[in-house]
Write a structure and sequence with these properties.
Tyrosyl-Transfer RNA Synthetase; binds tryptophan; binds adenosine-5'-diphosphate; 5 strands; mainly alpha; 324 residues; 2 domains; three-stranded parallel β-sheet; single chain
């Protein structure tokens, strides 16, 4: 079975955009691939400065994915930091990457453009990410467009390694650009933690309803016909409701006599139907950190032998002793 691999930074409690744009599609993809899904905690360390926050978000992310249906018996779910072999490959790869290529990195350039003084972790971020991928012979990496440059670098360095040290030593991965839609936030812009426009995935049903009511809409009267497409309420509704229900909402909005308040009510019910059962599972999982640790460590134990085999190949190829 071909392998897919992706990393999630533990930097926030997931919101509805993360769920519809990343979690749900990745769980669907796991049907067709041997899937590797890891919590990229050492990547998060480029920005997170609080151990408690790192721990909390690591459990939040693990419990969220499990609650949304990820089966840890089938998907390799692990913490990046539990398989420290990744750093050995990071070093080897960094010896093959020109600093100029890292200087052109989008995140690094963005940080400089904002007048920040980025740390070396931000500069080297793409090298660690390449190692994450190449260590496990991933065939495909599902990523958002913002990660494409990182993936290009991973492909480049794998090809360079093979060219220098021997064909087929490292598998050259392909990007799998997510077809998942961009989920709009309360203000109609892309839902994002940092924009303060997000709907938390696992707040109480009551809070969920309250937040949905805050979605910005047009100010047409109840009677007036409304344009459904492009409106935040309808665009979000069609991601969670059945096709027939979405068509019905569109018809009602366009006909008039159906207000944004009605549409929000329908949206909050559809979201609750989708999220409610997952919220209960989330709460049960999240309250048992020892069990989450056990699941994550079992995942790491399962993937470590793959990492060690890749490193053996790499060590032999570059002239280091193979530990066997
Ligand atoms: P945020 O923008 O809130 O910081 P992240 O950048 O941590 O979210 O995103 C984590 C994952 O969720 C990525 O795969 C990203 O593509 C996906 N994602 C985030 N926001 C959205 C959104 N509004 N619509 C669709 N997918 C999203
Ligand atoms: N950089 C990714 C992000 O910000 C997270 C990540 C780390 C990742 N390592 C990875 C994604 C390897 C895919 C493959 O979302």
């Amino acid at each position: 079975m071909r392998r897919s691999l992706t990393g999630i930074k533990p930097t926030n409690l997931p919101h509805v955009g993360n769920y519809l744009g990343a979690i749900r599609p990745a769980i669907a993809l796991a049907e067709r691939f041997e899937s590797f899904l890891f919590i990229a905690d050492y990547h998060a360390l480029t920005t997170v400065r609080d151990a408690e926050e790192m721990r909390r978000h690591t459990y939040d992310v693990a419990a969220s994915w499990l609650a949304c249906g990820l089966d840890p018996e089938r998907v390799h779910l692990y913490r990046q930091s539990d398989v420290t072999e990744v750093f050995e490959l990071t070093w080897v790869l960094s010896c093959l990457i020109a600093t100029g290529q890292l200087e052109r990195g989008v995140s690094y350039k963005d940080a400089l453009a904002k007048g920040e003084a980025p740390n070396a972790g931000v500069f080297n971020y793409p090298v660690l990410m390449a190692a994450d991928i190449l260590l496990y012979d991933a065939d495909v990496v599902p990523v958002g467009k913002d990660q494409l440059q990182h993936l290009e670098l991973a492909r480049d360095v794998a090809a360079r390694f093979n060219h220098l040290f021997g064909e087929d030593l490292l598998r050259v991965p392909e990007a799998h650009i997510s077809e998942a839609p961009l989920v709009p936030g309360l203000d109609g812009q892309k839902m994002s933690k940092s924009k303060g426009n997000s709907i938390p995935l696992f707040d109480s049903a009551k809070k969920l309803r309250k937040v949905v009511m805050k979605i910005v809409t047009g100010s047409e009267s109840l009677e007036e016909p409304k344009v459904a497409e492009g409106s935040t309420v309808y665009e979000m509704y069609r991601l969670v409701a059945s096709e027939a229900d979405a068509a019905e909402m569109k018809r009602q909005l366009e006909e008039g006599g159906y207000g944004w308040g009605h549409a929000k009510q329908a949206l909050s019910e559809a979201l609750e139907a989708e999220i409610g059962p997952k919220r209960e599972r989330f709460e049960a999982l999240r309250s048992d950190e020892a069990e989450l640790d056990r699941i994550l460590q079992a995942g790491a134990d399962r993937v470590r032998p793959i990492a060690l085999r890749t490193l053996d190949r790499v060590r032999a190829a570059v002239g280091m002793r193979v530990r066997g």
